[in-house]
Amino acid sequence: MKLDDIETSTPVRVPVSARWQDRPILIVDPSNFLRRLIADVLRHAGADHVHTFASKDDGLSAAVTYARPIIIADWSQAASAGPALTRALRRKNLPVRRAPVIALGNSGQMREVERARDAGVNAFLLRPVAPASLFARLDETVARPRPYVETESFAGPDRRTRPNQNGRIAWKRGVDVESGLATPLEAALAQADAMAEAMMRQGDMIAARVGRSLRQYLETVRDVGPRETEIITLHRSALRRLQEFENAPDAHRNELVNGLEEITARRLAA
Predict the structure, then answer these.
(1) Are the CB atoms for 158 and 172 separated by under 8 Å?
(2) Section 25-48 average pLDDT
(3) Residues 6+ apart with CB under 8 A from 57
């Protein structure tokens, strides 16, 4: 079954419990050895409903059949099951879009961690995974779930959860605007900078142009109204498309950004 062919079905329910050991755990990894290794570790810790799958399609197909599943997915490379599976899970039309996802990667480079975070994972662990570390992430995911966020460009656990210099938890910028900590324009400019900075840290200079294009436009306006909101949404959508097709040829990705910049330039000249 393909990712786009998944249909809503009646989930298989298990008793509601505060323990991750009592919830369905789906392990998605192409390596038979690694699947069995993780499954054995979880079962030894008392997990009663562990299921393993080799492909992202089988993993997603299984995810929609269970209530309150937890997914542990391979994230060893961009073409791994984890990235495509997580993005598919976070689609708004799936009943399991908020299912916790724990990514298992081979690289701890900041750009890889941020790429997983921006796809919507709950936690990122490096292989070889120590059982204690895996159990700690599972405990945290179930006992202290982060707020779930859905925007034009992102769906998943809130990424802004680190205390700032004043010790306050920094949540979404929309909350900052509502509480009077920032104007809509200030928040939009900060978002534009964050877009460019995040993509540059990931080494994606093509996607970084989206943030710079948005800042160039916002620097010419005095407030955020319907016209500006439309441009912001357009840039968010473009960034999301670039992230979905991060492995596409550079020529195709550049063409998308060129079109975005042309639209922005026309709006500036109007």
Answers:
(1) yes
(2) 94
(3) 1, 2, 3
